[in-house]
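Bumping my old thread because nobody answered last time. Still need a sequence for this structure:
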């Protein structure tokens, strides 16, 4: 068949076979995903597509024929890290003329970033955003066969392709996107600009994927979305359907936007035994004025109402949250309201970030007169407060027996393994490594400020 009649996939397969004959091994790809689990999941799909055309994978950029950085744009330091890494790859291109270097994901979806790469990082051959995964073969073949640079920032694909092979690194836990994009436009956040509007996967597709993973032995499924509560086909209904799937596994999900978190969601979590009694409910700030400026569309009173409802049903209900310190115009008094809020809620853990100005967002235009140094000090203050809360609040588990999913080797000592409770709390336990990948029962003996420690009871 003539070259121009073959699909890009067929051309790439023929190329990789030729490469194997020339070099004695399959071409190697180095794929690195930064940022959130959504990005990690996209990275696994990219790996699946590359494996179909004959690539193997490596952790060493020196031996790769393809380097792809799947990037995150949520904060400036994430972007700086990527530019640093691309800068350091110039010499690889000088050593290996056939090497293809690509940048994809959220950062690559922004025009000013693509322009910067075009002008200042000539070692990069391929730049594509979060909508272009379906075109991967066509783009890669153009680069390899014609040695031209490709920049694809199209936003055209609103269809969800279910036709992806996903190569997962983890054999126990799997992340499954149930929806893509975000409609909320919180004023500080770049995600709606780089991920487009919300679109939900059909429940049957999600259910079939979960069933297949459980059949393959996966023990923990985490459903992903920027706001799973606005899943088009009804999120509590989806949880109930997944809960009916037979098998020994647990279900988690993230994130939940507080404006859409309902009592029905809490009831569903409590009633479905496979759904973990843990809610990651990002509050972002403890001052109503700042929440309004962030366009979060709830007040602290609305937020506390849902916490109180959950704790009235289950006093140990676990919450974690995201917090931003130093939003433009935030005063020290307003920051202190965030500290008050975390004391009231008693989170098991918080993920807190210094505000980072994102070009193109509404907050980027707001006056911001607090120095980064000052914001860094506030962040430290917040973390110290949370450390005390965690060590005290984790005390509620001491003397109780909990079920954990053992995930890997422990930090405490070489003969320890580590895992997480239903509430997503780390437990360190002295036990044989053969339990890794299994649910085990542990009697909690000690609460630390980052984890629990316990003794193995009996295997489930
Ligand atoms: N969709 C999720 C939600 O609204 O709960 C959040 C997803 S975002 C990828 C993860 C977290 O990053 C946010 O909850 C927020 O705390 C933080 N974040 C987002 N934009 C930020 C910015 N410009 N500066 C600092 N932190 C930011
Ligand atoms: Fe960003 Fe807000 Fe959307 Fe979360 S809900 S991704 S913080 S815009
Ligand atoms: Fe995730 Fe970062 Fe994009 S947090 S959605 S990878 S901007």
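Sorry it took so long. Here it is:
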């Amino acid at each position: 068949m003539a070259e121009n009649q073959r699909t890009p996939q067929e051309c790439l397969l023929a190329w990789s076979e030729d490469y194997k004959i020339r070099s004695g091994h399959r071409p190697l790809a180095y794929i690195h995903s930064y940022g959130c689990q959504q990005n990690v999941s996209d990275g696994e799909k990219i790996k699946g597509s590359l494996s179909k055309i004959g690539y193997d994978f490596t952790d060493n950029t020196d031996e790769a024929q393809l380097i792809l950085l799947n990037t995150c744009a949520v904060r400036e330091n994430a972007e700086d890290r990527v530019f640093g890494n691309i800068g350091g790859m110039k010499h690889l291109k000088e050593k290996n003329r056939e090497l293809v270097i690509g940048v994809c994901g959220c950062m690559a979806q922004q025009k000013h970033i693509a322009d910067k790469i075009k002008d200042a990082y000539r070692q990069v051959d391929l730049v594509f955003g979060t909508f272009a995964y379906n075109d991967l073969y066509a783009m890669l073949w153009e680069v390899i066969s014609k040695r031209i640079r490709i920049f694809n920032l199209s936003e055209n694909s609103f269809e969800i392709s279910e036709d992806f092979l996903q190569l997962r690194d983890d054999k126990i836990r799997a992340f499954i996107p149930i929806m893509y994009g975000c409609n909320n436009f919180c004023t500080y956040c770049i995600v709606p600009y780089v991920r487009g509007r919300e679109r939900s996967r059909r429940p049957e597709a999600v259910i079939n994927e979960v069933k297949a993973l459980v059949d393959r032995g996966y023990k923990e499924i985490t459903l992903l979305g920027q706001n799973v509560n606005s899943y088009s086909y009804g999120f509590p209904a989806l949880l109930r359907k997944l809960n009916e799937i037979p098998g020994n596994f647990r279900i988690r999900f993230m994130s939940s936007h507080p404006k859409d978190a309902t009592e029905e969601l809490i009831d569903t979590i409590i009633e479905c035994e496979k759904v973990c009694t843990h809610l990651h409910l990002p509050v972002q700030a403890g001052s109503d004025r700042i929440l309004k400026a962030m366009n979060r569309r709830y007040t602290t009173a609305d937020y506390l109402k849902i916490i109180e409802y959950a704790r009235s049903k289950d006093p140990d209900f676990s919450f974690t949250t995201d917090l931003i310190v130093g939003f433009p115009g935030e005063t020290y008094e307003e920051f202190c309201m965030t500290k008050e809020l975390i004391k009231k809620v008693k989170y098991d853990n918080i993920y807190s970030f210094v505000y980072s100005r994102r070009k193109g967002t509404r907050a980027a235009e707001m006056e911001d007169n607090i120095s980064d140094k000052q914001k860094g000090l506030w962040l430290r203050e917040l973390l110290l407060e949370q450390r005390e809360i965690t060590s005290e609040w984790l005390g509620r588990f001491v003397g109780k027996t909990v079920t954990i999913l053992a995930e890997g080797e422990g930090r405490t000592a070489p003969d320890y393994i580590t895992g997480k409770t239903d509430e997503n709390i780390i437990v360190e336990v002295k036990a044989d490594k053969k339990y890794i990948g299994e649910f085990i029962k542990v009697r909690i003996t000690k609460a630390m400020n980052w984890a629990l420690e316990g003794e193995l009871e009996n295997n489930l």
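The mean pLDDT is 95. Let me know if any region looks off to you.
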